[in-house]
Every structure is written in C-alpha cells, then in structure tokens.
Structure to design on (809 residues):
C-alpha cells in the first residue's frame, strides 16, 4: 500500500493570497493513499525541507507530492531533500500551483479548486512512480560565448584564465561591441578605447580563446554539458590568415560611398574596410553589397594592391560545428529606431542626432576627429539641447518601450559635461522627466554637470523640434517653472531607448532560452540566479539581459564566467534517468522505435525466451542505451505493440493524471 | 441535451517540458490571466503524446484537449514535434470519423519566450470549447466515479 505525503506551500503570499492552502491540504488528505498532508509557509526553506524529511521518516512515506512553484524552479531542490531522508528522489512529484495557478487567477475559490485538482493529478501520478537511479554524462570542457561586446570579452577572458578553452562568436567583423563607439565613459571619464582595446588584444592573444568573427550561430543541439553548435562564418572574401591588416586596400578601393556603420552613417567607408584602427581581428572585409567585383566581376583593385595575396573573391561561407559544455549569451543591445518619434525631426535634419551618434562626433577617432561640428554645415554649434527618455518609459508600448533604459541619464550628463568642458562658449540644455542616478559616484557626477559645468537641467518634455533657417526651433515645457520655452538650438541630441539586438529572439529560440515581452533574456531567478537562463547550461552576460552600464555589464560577465567555470570543472553531470525502456516480453523487434529515435539510442539483440513445452525461442528485441537516450518519448508512441515506455512519464502515469484531471 | 449557461469546460493541456511548459510558467510570472479550466500535464516532448491519451481524456469527460510544443524546427530533441504534428494529423481524421468536433483538439507551438501567446491561446481555446458546449460524444459514463 502506498503511503503518500502531501506538502502544500504558501510561498509567502504568492500562493496563499489566491489559493486557500489549508483547504487544499485538507482536501488532498482524503485522497486514496495519502497518509500525511500539511501546509507550510516556505517549503523550500531549511525548516520546510526538514518538515518534509521528518514526515518521510515518521510516516514511512513511499511518495511525496509538493504543491508549490514550478518544477522548473525547485524540482532539483526537493529531489535532494527527499533523497537525504532516504527516499528515492524520483518518488517525488510537484504540482505547479504558483506559475500555473495562483499567479494567473484572481478568484480564490476557482484557484483553490484548481490547486486541488492539480494536487490530485500529482498524487495519482506519484502512486505509479518507480525509484530511478541517474547515470552520468561527460562534460565537454569548452565554452561558447555568443556576442563579442565588453560582456562577451570579459566572460571569455575569465573562463580562459581558469584554463578552459572558449570560443567567441561575433556577428560583426570585429569584437568590441558598443563600447568601441563610445568616447569617454562615466563616471570617471576615462576613454573607452583606452580601457577596452587592451582587453580586445588580450582576448585575441589568449591561447584559450578562439575568436570567430563575422559569424553567427546557426544551429544548437544537445543539452547542458554536451551542446553541439553549428556556426556560420560568413565569407569576408579576405583570407584572415594572410591579411596583415595594413589597410592599403581600404585606401585604394574605388567604391567610396558606402555608409560607414561604425560611425553610424555619419561618414563613408570603402567596399573593402577595416571597421576601425584597433579592430580585432584586424583584417579587411569586403562588403558584398557594394563590391563591384563581387557584383559585376569588374574591378579587382584590392587583389592587385594586396601584397599579402589575401583577397579571395571566391571565398564561401564556412560552417563550423563544435562541441561545448556551456553557452553564454552576450548579444547586447541596440538603440531603437526613431521613425515613430518624428516630432523631434530626426529624419528631417542631420543636426538632430542620437546619443550614440553624438559619441562619434565627440570621439577623436570619429568622423570629425573629435571636433564637435554640426553635421549639416560643419559649423561649431553654440546651443545644444539634449532630450532624455526618447522612447523609454512610454505609456503605450506601441510607440516606445515601457521600461527605463537606465544608462541615458548618466551618458547625457556625461555628454553635457564634456561639451561644456571642451567648448565653454556653448549653452547646454537637458530636458528630463526624472534624473535617475543611483550607482557609485553617479549622483555626484550628475551634480557636477549642473553645479560645476553650468548645464541647464530642465524638468519637462520637448514637444516639437522644427528645422527653420538653419536652426532647430525647440518647443518645450518647463514643468517646475510652469512655462513654455522656445529655444533656437544648433543641435538636438536624443537619448534613444535601448532594446535587445534583433537577432536575440531567433537565437533564444535555438537555445530554448526564455525572453521577456521586451526580448531581453530572462534569468533563472530574478534575484537569486541572475546570470543563468532557466535552460540548463545557458548563461547570460551583459545588456542582453536588461539595460546595463559598463560596470554592471562587467560584473555580470564575470559572474557568468564563474558559473560556467563551476560547470566545466565537473567531470560528469548526472544524467536524466527518465529514459525509455522496452518490455522485452512485449517487444516484437519491429524496428519502429529505432527509426524515430533522434539519438540512435536503440539497438536490437537476439534474446532467448522460454517457449511452450520446454522449447527455447530466440527473439529479436529492442534495447535502449540509457546514456544516449534523452527521454523524448518519441519511440514510446511509435511502438505498435506498446512495449516501449518512458520511465518517469509512463503511459500509466500520464493516464492517471488525465483521469485525475477529468474526474 | 440541455445547454448549461454556466458550463465550465474541462480542458487538458499537454505541454512539452522545454518550450510550452516554460511558456506557461512565463505567463504566470508575468501574471497573464487565462481560465482555470485549463489543467496542464507536463510531458518531456510533444512527441511523448500518445493519441491514446487524448482519447482517454475525452472518454473521461474532457471537453477539449490541446497539445503545445516547441515551434517546428526548435524541438529540444530536434525532431520530436514533427512526429507529434504527423500523429496529430492522423488523430484529427480519426476524431472526425468518430464525430468529435474538430475544434475540440488543437495543436499550438508555444516557445519558452511566448508567455503572452500561451495565455492568449488558452483564452481563445477555452472560449471555443465553451461555445461548443460539453463533450458527450466519447464520454463513457461508466468511467465516472461518484
Ligand atoms: C550612447 C551611449 C553611451 C554610453 N556611455 C556609457 C558610459 O559612458 N559608461 C558606461 O558604463 N556605459 C555606457 N554605455 C553603456 C554601454 O554601451 C553598455 O553597458 C555596454 O556596451 C554593454 O555591453 P554588452 O557587451 O552587453 O553589449 P554590446 O556592447 O551591445 O555588445 C554586444 C555584441 O554582441 C554582438 N552580437 C549581437 N547579436 C549577436 C549574435 N546573434 N551573434 C553574434 N554576435 C552578436 C554585437 O555585434 C556586439 O558586438 C553607453 C551606451 C550608449 C548607447
Ligand atoms: S587584404 Fe591585403 S591589402 Fe587589404 S588589409 Fe589585408 S593585407 Fe592589407
Ligand atoms: S525516448 Fe527518445 S531518445 Fe530515448 S530511445 Fe526513445 S526515441 Fe530515443
């Protein structure tokens, strides 16, 4: 006879506010097989776990049902709990009454009834659970970092320092990310290139790091410890090993009118280009959209001037497949498109720029050599208007983003300060909704902008910007002064909201990693597991997880690296014991199961069985290799004789759940 | 047959562990509401769904059954959802043959990131089933425990 214990968790008020936990515990106590049922505030706490263990010993439980948060959250925790009390960890089932009940319902009665039914289904299932023992699977001691911004670089460096090989896949021709485009960095105002480029060089010289640039992940297979990833390395039409990065080709290429994405289109580059002087790897790339040779077969200038013989117009995309134990996502962010914000005249006047464009205009390596000049006429601007929160903190999510982009207050203060410092003859206005400067030395930084540098901070929004007679007429409201302002500005700088990279969503799908409604990657736990994705073996680093400045990005990057190292030092991981198992007496050796198994886990052997009248029958029967089987269950449904079943999710167990729900 | 105005259908949702179950969790985390009629059964992959489970659910009085899995091409086990899709197509014609309304069974692909889609799907499916009324066709009254 089964002796089941039921434990209903309040999860503080997360469950208890909508589900009457006491009623659930009392109702479930009456289910057949249940000998103990209780509720408790936090089952996952030490005291909660001890309560479970005590009940197991005292009531000699043969099965445990915990009604709590999702099994994706705490199944592993509770398995350990019951194991320590001497119960096989697979004699446990979790009824998900938080994510799939209390959090989605408002009516207490309905939610309570549903929780009872979910609990019943788990009880019905656990009666049929069998003790299982997990095997071991090896860990591939190599990590993949997707995205080569400061986040990806830092993560890779830390993993490499610990002695593990790591690959960085970067979609652009060079690593470095957004930080390469930034001029100086708040709050210390040290130059971004001075602190970033040494790290880029470190990464390229570290023998444990392999940088695969101009490449994207195409396919991800496998599971934690054993991922197999296919990477498409795009043809750059230049042999990376031969190119010395001398840059001669980029001076001689006749295609001169290609918008330079590194300077955000503020100037032009050639069809063959090296993004910037400190690019890593420092090799040329041909842009196939503009190269005359690739488009029409007429040109070939770069091949003629290249003394290294590196140009290869016939180069093809290359597919690289490698095995990894862990994957880190570091795909960063992009400023949003501003086409929905035409009140600021971004599309109408070149003198209305985004903050990232402003970084390029202030940067010594930028299109103007660091002299701030108006893009329209190259004149020195006298009046500058900065607008914060463009597209951030929007009410209607149709137009912009509901969230705060977090970095704009600080970089706007930085821009305003740097402008006043370099050009004391300028008038600088900043329009803001709130100034948000939490962070070490951040508020002091902002106050310096106001107090020392005399930047005019005005609480209020800019309503309209109209280009007129070579000026930008700015109409704005001053909320504290209660008046309308009209400013004749020379330049308007928009602090555009930031959003995740456009490639993040398809990547998340490949990795089976979750994202929130804004396409930022979600963490396994918002507070306690901030650098892991809920999918085992996938880790998060940098702004792909949410808006972040550089210090926060680097902190998260190192944290993610620590988690990866913690995984890679293990020699083996515990396998999933929920594998397929054929009943040899029922199996007729038809091979149906073998055909559907994606892992080739099924083989056949001839076995002797006792036949009628003392005869021996030799029959061909299926065998599953539990180390290879991943437990998908495809074979169980394909099996025409019903011989194949899945441990942990057997036909009888699932039918018992169905029955309990439909009862 | 008497149509009950306060008919609350019983709906069984089979969700694969990797995408749709996580998607369902996400709609919870984001506090997106959908009716309590929907009860989720976790299966490792949509290909674990034996059509027999669906028939059994109808037999036991379920009014609608929905299978959710990873999007085609995104299966955690590479090909599982393709098998599921094929098997479900076959099951659909069997259910047609048995006279069960086509709308009572549904297949949806919901990724781990699509909490909103999960909630929207469940809202829509519950509405459809409520409109169809109780399922009587396959229900085996001998199965009822009092
Ligand atoms: C105007 C502006 C000024 C700023 N000023 C400061 C400052 O002064 N101080 C400060 O601390 N912070 C500042 N920041 C913030 C800073 O830029 C970010 O914190 C930092 O860049 C985040 O690093 P990251 O590596 O996460 O992302 P990113 O820098 O965006 O790097 C992501 C990288 O991943 C690559 N990638 C994306 N998708 C894929 C894919 N699918 N496959 C392969 N590769 C991919 C991208 O090409 C990129 O190289 C500023 C930001 C802006 C917009
Ligand atoms: S391709 Fe040749 S010319 Fe161009 S940068 Fe490389 S070595 Fe120099
Ligand atoms: S459960 Fe899946 S992986 Fe395991 S033997 Fe069956 S088909 Fe293969």
């Amino acid at each position: 006879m089964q002796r089941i214990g039921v434990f209903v968790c309040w999860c503080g008020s997360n469950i208890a506010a909508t589900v009457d936990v006491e009623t659930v515990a009392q109702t479930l106590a009456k289910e057949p097989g249940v000998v103990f049922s209780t509720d408790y505030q936090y089952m996952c706490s030490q005291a909660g776990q001890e309560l479970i263990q005590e009940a197991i010993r005292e009531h000699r439980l043969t099965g445990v049902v915990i009604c709590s948060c999702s099994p994706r959250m705490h199944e592993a925790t509770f398995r350990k709990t019951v194991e320590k009390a001497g119960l096989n960890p697979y004699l446990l089932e979790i009824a998900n009454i938080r994510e799939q009940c209390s959090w989605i319902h408002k009516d207490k009665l309905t939610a309570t009834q549903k929780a009872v039914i979910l609990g019943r289904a788990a009880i019905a299932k656990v009666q049929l659970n069998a003790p299982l023992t997990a095997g071991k699977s090896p860990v591939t001691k190599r990590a993949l970092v997707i995205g080569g911004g400061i986040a990806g670089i830092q993560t890779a460096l830390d993993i490499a320092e610990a002695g593990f090989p790591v690959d960085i896949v970067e979609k652009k021709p060079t690593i470095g990310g957004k930080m390469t485009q930034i001029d100086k960095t708040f709050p210390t105002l040290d130059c971004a290139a001075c602190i970033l480029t040494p790290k880029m060089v470190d990464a390229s010289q570290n023998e444990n790091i392999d940088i695969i640039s101009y490449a994207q992940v195409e396919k991800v297979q496998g599971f934690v410890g054993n991922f197999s990833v296919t990477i498409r390395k795009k043809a750059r039409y230049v042999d990376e090993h031969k190119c010395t990065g001398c840059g001669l080709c980029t001076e001689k290429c006749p295609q001169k009118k290609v918008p330079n994405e590194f300077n955000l289109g503020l100037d032009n580059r050639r069809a063959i280009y090296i993004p910037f002087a400190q690019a890593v790897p420092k090799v040329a790339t041909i842009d196939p959209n503009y190269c005359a040779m690739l488009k029409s077969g007429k040109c070939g200038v770069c091949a003629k001037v290249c003394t290294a013989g590196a140009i290869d117009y016939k180069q093809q995309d290359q597919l690289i497949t490698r095995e990894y134990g862990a994957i880190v996502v570091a795909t960063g962010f992009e400023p949003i498109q501003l086409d929905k914000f035409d009140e600021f005249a971004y599309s109408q006047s070149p003198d209305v720029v985004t903050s990232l464009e402003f970084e390029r205009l202030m940067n010594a390596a930028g299109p103007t050599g660091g002299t701030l000049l108006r893009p329209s006429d190259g004149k020195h601007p006298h009046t500058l208007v900065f607008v914060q929160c463009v597209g951030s903190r929007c009410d209607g999510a149709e137009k912009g983003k509901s969230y705060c982009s977090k970095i704009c207050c600080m970089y706007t203060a930085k821009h305003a300060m740097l402008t006043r410092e370099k050009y004391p003859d300028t008038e600088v206005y900043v329009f803001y909704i709130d100034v948000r400067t939490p962070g070490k030395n951040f508020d002091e930084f902002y106050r310096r902008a106001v107090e020392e540098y005399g930047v005019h901070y005005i609480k209020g929004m800019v309503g309209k910007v109209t280009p007129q007679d070579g000026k930008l007429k700015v109409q704005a409201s001053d909320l504290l002064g209660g008046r309308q302002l009209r400013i004749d500005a020379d330049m308007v700088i928009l602090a555009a909201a930031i959003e995740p990279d456009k490639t993040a969503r398809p990547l998340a799908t490949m990795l089976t990693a979750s994202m929130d409604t804004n396409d930022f990657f979600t963490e396994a736990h918002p507070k306690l597991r901030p650098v892991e994705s809920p999918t085992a073996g996938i880790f998060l680093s940098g702004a792909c997880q949410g808006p972040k400045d550089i210090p926060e990005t680097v902190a998260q990057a190192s944290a993610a690296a620590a988690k990866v190292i913690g995984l890679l030092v293990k020699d083996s991981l515990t396998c999933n014991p929920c594998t397929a198992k054929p009943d040899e007496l029922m199996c007729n050796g038809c091979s149906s199961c073998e055909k559907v198994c994606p892992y080739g886990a099924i083989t056949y052997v001839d076995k002797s069985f006792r036949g009628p009248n003392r005869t021996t029958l030799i029959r061909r029967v299926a065998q599953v290799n539990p180390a290879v089987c991943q437990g998908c269950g495809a074979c169980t449904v394909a099996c025409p004789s019903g011989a194949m079943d899945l441990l942990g999710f057997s036909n009888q167990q699932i039918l018992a759940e169905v029955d309990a729900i439909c009862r | 047959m008497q149509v009950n105005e306060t008919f609350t259908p019983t709906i069984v949702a089979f969700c694969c562990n990797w995408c749709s179950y996580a998607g369902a969790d996400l709609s919870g985390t984001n506090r997106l509401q959908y009716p309590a009629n929907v009860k989720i059964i976790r299966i490792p992959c949509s290909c674990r769904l034996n059509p027999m489970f669906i028939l059994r659910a109808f037999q036991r009085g379920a009014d609608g059954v929905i299978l959710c899995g990873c999007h085609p091409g995104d299966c955690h086990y590479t090909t599982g959802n393709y098998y599921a899709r094929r098997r479900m197509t076959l099951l659909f014609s069997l259910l047609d043959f048995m006279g069960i309304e086509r709308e009572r069974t549904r297949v949806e692909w919901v990724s781990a990131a699509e909490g909103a889609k999960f909630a929207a799907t469940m809202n829509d499916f519950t509405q459809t089933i409520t409109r169809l009324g109780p399922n009587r066709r396959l229900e085996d009254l001998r199965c009822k425990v009092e």
User: Anything to note?
Assistant: Residues A 579-580, 596-597, 599, 601-602, 624, 629-635, 646 surround iron/sulfur cluster (ligand 3) (CB under 6 Å). Residues 108-126 of chain A form the longest helix (19 residues).
